[in-house]
Design goal:
Elements (H helix, E strand, L loop, with lengths): L7 E5 L3 H11 L4 E5 L2 H10 L5 E5 L7 H11 L4 E6 L4 H11 L3 E4 L4 H17 L14 H16 L5 E9 L1 H8 L1 H18 L5 E6 L2 E7 L7 H11 L1 H9 L4 E9 L6 H7 L5
Parallel strand pairs: 1-2, 1-3, 3-4, 4-5
Antiparallel strand pairs: 6-8, 6-9, 7-8
C-alpha cells in the first residue's frame, strides 16, 4: 500500500443496517468494502491485493465469523482481524483467538469513538507487520509488537515533560496452575484476565503479553497518584473465571509492579530492568 492509498477494510455482516453504520463511521478515512456473508467475503478477498483489516459479525447464517476468519487467515495472514458480536461465551472467545488470532472482540451496540480507536490501533499493527504480531491465546500484541509500541512511547515521552508508567501484571503460580488444571483452563484464565485488563485501562494505553502469565501495560501521561494497580486487581477479581481460579488454586495470585519514566530510567531497557523483565 502506497502512502497515498487509503487502507482497505473489509466489513462482513448479514444485516445491511450494521454494514451501513460501519461504512458511515469508517468510510471517510478508509476504503471500506462490504460483504453480506462469509462466503461472499472470501470471494472479495480473492479479488483484492491488499486488505489491512477485517471486521466481521460473529453470528451469521451459513458461516460464523469465527469460521470465516479461520479461512480468511489462510488467504490474508497479515490482515488484522476483529469480531463484532452481541454475545460471547468464554469458549467462543478461546476458539476465535486460537483459530483465527482475533485482535479484538467489540460488543454490540458499539460506541463510534471506541470503534475508531480500535481501528486505528489495528491499522498500526498492520503497518508494523500484520495480525500475526498478536498473541495467539489472548489476541493482545505479542512481545515483539509490544516492544515496538514501548519504543515509540518512550521516544515520545523523552520529547515532552509528560510522565510514562509501565505496569507488569504477573499471574504468579501460572505454570503450576497450567500443569495442574490443563491447557484449556489456563487459556480461559488468561483470556478472562486479558479482557478484565482491557476494561481497566484507558483507550490510549497499550496492553500486551510479555511472556507466559505476564502482561505489560504502557500508560502514557499516567500520574503517580492514579490508583491504576488497584483498579487492575479489582477488575481481574471481578471476572468469574479469574476469581474461581484464584479461589480454587491458592498458589495463584495477581501481582502488579510499576516502573516510571524518568524516575526509574529514561530508556526502554532501564524500565524493563526495573520490572525484572530484562537482565
Amino acid at each position: 500500500m502506497s502512502p497515498t492509498e487509503r487502507p482497505v477494510i473489509l466489513a462482513v455482516d448479514d444485516e445491511p443496517e450494521n454494514l451501513d453504520l460501519l461504512e458511515r463511521t469508517l468510510g471517510l478515512d478508509y476504503d471500506v468494502r462490504v460483504a453480506h456473508s462469509g462466503a461472499e467475503a472470501l470471494e472479495i478477498l480473492g479479488q483484492l491485493t491488499d486488505v489491512a483489516l477485517i471486521i466481521t459479525d460473529q453470528r451469521m447464517p451459513g458461516m460464523t465469523g469465527t469460521e470465516f476468519l479461520s479461512k480468511a487467515r489462510l488467504r490474508r495472514a497479515d490482515a488484522v482481524r476483529m469480531i463484532v458480536t452481541g454475545y460471547t461465551s468464554p469458549a467462543d472467545l478461546i476458539d476465535a483467538i486460537n483459530s483465527s488470532n482475533v485482535f479484538r472482540f467489540v460488543t454490540k451496540p458499539w460506541d463510534i469513538d471506541h470503534m475508531l480507536s480500535m481501528v486505528r490501533r489495528a491499522l498500526r499493527i498492520y503497518e508494523a507487520g500484520g495480525g500475526d504480531l498478536l498473541d495467539e491465546v489472548t489476541g493482545l500484541p505479542n512481545r515483539r509488537l509490544l516492544r515496538r509500541e514501548l519504543d515509540r512511547e518512550v521516544a515520545r515521552t523523552a520529547r515532552t515533560p509528560r510522565p510514562l508508567a509501565l505496569k507488569a501484571i504477573r499471574v504468579d503460580g501460572y505454570a503450576d496452575y497450567a500443569a495442574s488444571r490443563g491447557p484449556i483452563a489456563a487459556e480461559m484464565l488468561l483470556t478472562a484476565l486479558a479482557d478484565s485488563l482491557r476494561a481497566a485501562l484507558r483507550q490510549v494505553d497499550v496492553l500486551g503479553v510479555h511472556g507466559d502469565g505476564v502482561f505489560l501495560a504502557v500508560l502514557p501521561e499516567c500520574a503517580a497518584s492514579d490508583p491504576v494497580s488497584d483498579r487492575i486487581v479489582a477488575a481481574a477479581r471481578s471476572r468469574v473465571a479469574v476469581r474461581e481460579a484464584l479461589e480454587g488454586f491458592p498458589a495463584l495470585r495477581i501481582s502488579v509492579d510499576e516502573a516510571r519514566m524518568p524516575e526509574q530510567g529514561t530508556s526502554v531497557r532501564d524500565l524493563l530492568q526495573a520490572l525484572a523483565l530484562e537482565s
